[in-house]
């Protein structure tokens, strides 16, 4: 197996023949759990490269993480980050529309992408024989994307239709959007990642070009390679494809923190659903904060599958809910403990919220049990380990933790933090963050129109 010294020597040797400004530096070898290593490189143009070598199978996951998401957007121009997730699979100066996916698929690979509040990523899962092709295409669309009127108009139509399907005509999507809009009056986390419809309709090629030239640059991205890497060949290809790209001037992020919430916000909406629903957002710590691990353990105790306390109490014992879900945001800034409750027929949203509060008060009054704590930590550990079993799983973890926390191996620190959580930690976190005067609630009432998706599920 190639050692750290070999990687450093290869980078030095390959760079020796390159012009100044197009060279690759080996920065460090960083631990990635027990027995694994991430090699960190930097191109002169600012591109960060993280390599995790595993020769157990002839496959490679190539991911590009761009430090842009809806948190970087302003009112009137929302949804640009998500629009680019679509545009980046389109035409470039050298490749016609549709050719990107076709070439990767013909080479035996697959592609995908995602956008969220803090980041956008693009992934190619490839046989090793296609890695050179993948790098060439990735570098090409980072610098030579065509953004004329036909291309922009076509993808705007796709995104507007997606918004209609996933938000405007979807109860869960519309309620989630309303929850975050009410919870964040100042911070950009109140902006939906897909954007507001009127903003999407108004995008021009000039808007897209300005956004592209600002954020889609090597010095605003991290390239992750996980799998069967050939240092000499693949680092050479990387230099050939990405080393020639020009950096951009990344603007200083002008983010306004969300002021403390001092009173409960309740929004009542009517939606085409056959049963009542409730969405609740408690303010929660940022992903890098000390308290985050205890909140994740608490969420697992409350909502961790059929053994979760609220599933047992509200779904099985009291039979007043059909589904309960809860998730602690994994974002750079403080976000939400995002909770969703679906009432059983005959139960109102107000009744469901009241019974939920009764159960939640028990978490504030007394510590969780030893058994609940240990089972929650065991499930979190299992999920963490399973997420790293494949090259795509490791690439995603490396890119996510690098982009959000600046530490590509921080998933193992998170795992250790979960292991250290005590009953006292959970009790303190619950009393700190599960504060009714700092929560946002959306009560969903049926408007008399059937929820077709729910009806289909019930008929099975």
CATH architecture annotation name of the largest domain: 2-Layer Sandwich
Total beta strand runs:
12
- Please report the number of helical segments: 17
Strand-and-helix sequence, N→C?
HEEEEHHEEHHHHHEHEEHHEEHHHHHEH
Please state how the strands of the largest beta sheet are arranged side by side: 1-2-3-7-4-6-5
Gap from first CA to last CA: 52 Å
CATH topology of the largest domain: Cytochrome Bc1 Complex, Chain A, domain 1
Low-confidence runs (pLDDT<50, min 5 residues)? Answer: 453-460
What amount of the residues lies in strands?
15-25%
- Alpha-beta classification: alpha+beta
Domain count: the total is: 2
Radius of gyration: 24 Å
What's the level 1 CATH class of the largest domain?
Alpha Beta
Helix fraction? 40-55%
What's the CATH H-level homologous superfamily of the largest domain? Metalloenzyme, LuxS/M16 peptidase-like
Task: Outline the biggest β-sheet.
Answer: 7 strands, mixed
Give an account of the 3D structure.
The structure is a single chain. The protein contains 17 helices and twelve strands. It has two domains: 4-242, 2-Layer Sandwich (Cytochrome Bc1 Complex, Chain A, domain 1); 265-459, Metalloenzyme, LuxS/M16 peptidase-like (Cytochrome Bc1 Complex, Chain A, domain 1). The protein has helices spanning 4-16, 80-87, 99-106, 131-143, 149-168, 171-183, 197-202, 205-215, 231-242, 292-303, 309-317, 349-365, 370-386, 391-405, 410-420, 423-433, 452-459, and strands at 24-31, 37-43, 48-53, 59-66, 110-115, 120-127, 221-227, 265-271, 277-284, 321-328, 335-343, 439-446. Strand 5 (110-115) and strand 6 form a beta hairpin. The strands form two sheets. It has a seven-stranded mixed beta sheet, sandwiched between helices. It has a five-stranded mixed beta sheet with strand order 8-12-9-11-10, with helices on both faces.
């Amino acid at each position: 197996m190639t050692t750290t010294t070999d990687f450093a020597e290869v980078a030095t040797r390959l760079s020796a023949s390159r012009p100044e400004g197009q060279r690759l530096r080996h920065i460090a070898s960083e631990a990635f759990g027990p027995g694994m290593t991430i090699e960190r490189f930097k191109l002169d143009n600012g591109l960060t490269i993280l390599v995790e070598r595993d020769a157990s199978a002839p496959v490679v996951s190539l991911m590009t993480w761009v430090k842009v998401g809806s948190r970087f957007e302003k009112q009137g121009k929302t949804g640009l980050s998500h629009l680019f997730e679509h545009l980046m699979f389109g035409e470039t100066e050298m490749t016609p529309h549709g050719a990107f996916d076709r070439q990767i698929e013909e080479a035996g690979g697959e592609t995908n992408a995602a956008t969220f509040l803090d980041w956008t990523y693009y992934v190619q899962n490839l046989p090793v024989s296609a890695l050179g092709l993948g790098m060439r295409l990735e570098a090409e669309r980072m610098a030579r994307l065509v953004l004329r009127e036909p291309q922009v108009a076509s993808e705007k139509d796709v995104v507007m239709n997606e918004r209609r399907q996933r938000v405007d005509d979807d109860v869960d999507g519309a309620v989630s959007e309303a929850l975050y809009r009410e919870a964040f009056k100042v911070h950009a986390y109140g902006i939906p990642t897909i954007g507001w419809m009127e903003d999407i309709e108004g995008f021009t090629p000039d808007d897209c070009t300005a956004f592209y030239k600002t954020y889609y640059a090597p010095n605003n991205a991290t390239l992750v390679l996980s799998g069967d890497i050939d240092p000499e060949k693949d680092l050479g290809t990387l230099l050939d494809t990405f080393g020639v790209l020009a950096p951009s001037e990344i603007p200083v992020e002008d983010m306004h923190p969300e002021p403390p919430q001092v009173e409960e916000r309740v929004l009542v909406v009517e939606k085409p659903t056959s049963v009542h629903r409730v969405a609740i957002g408690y303010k929660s710590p940022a992903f890098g904060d000390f308290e985050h691990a205890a909140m994740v353990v608490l969420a697992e105790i409350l909502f961790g599958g059929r053994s979760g306390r609220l599933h047992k109490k509200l779904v099985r014992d009291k039979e007043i809910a059909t589904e309960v879900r809860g998730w602690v945001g994994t974002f750079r800034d403080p976000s939400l403990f995002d909770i969703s409750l679906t009432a059983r027929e005959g139960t109102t949203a107000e009744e469901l919220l009241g019974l939920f509060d009764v159960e939640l008060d028990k978490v504030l009054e007394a510590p969780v049990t030893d058994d609940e704590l240990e089972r929650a930590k065991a499930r979190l550990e299992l999920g963490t380990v399973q997420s790293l079993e494949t090259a795509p799983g490791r690439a995603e973890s490396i890119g996510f933790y690098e982009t959000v926390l600046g530490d590509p191996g921080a998933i193992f620190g998170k795992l250790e933090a979960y292991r250290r959580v005590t009953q006292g930690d959970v009790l303190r976190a619950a009393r700190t963050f599960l504060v009714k005067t700092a929560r946002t609630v959306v009560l969903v009432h049926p408007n008399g129109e059937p929820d077709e998706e729910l009806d289909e599920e019930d008929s099975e």
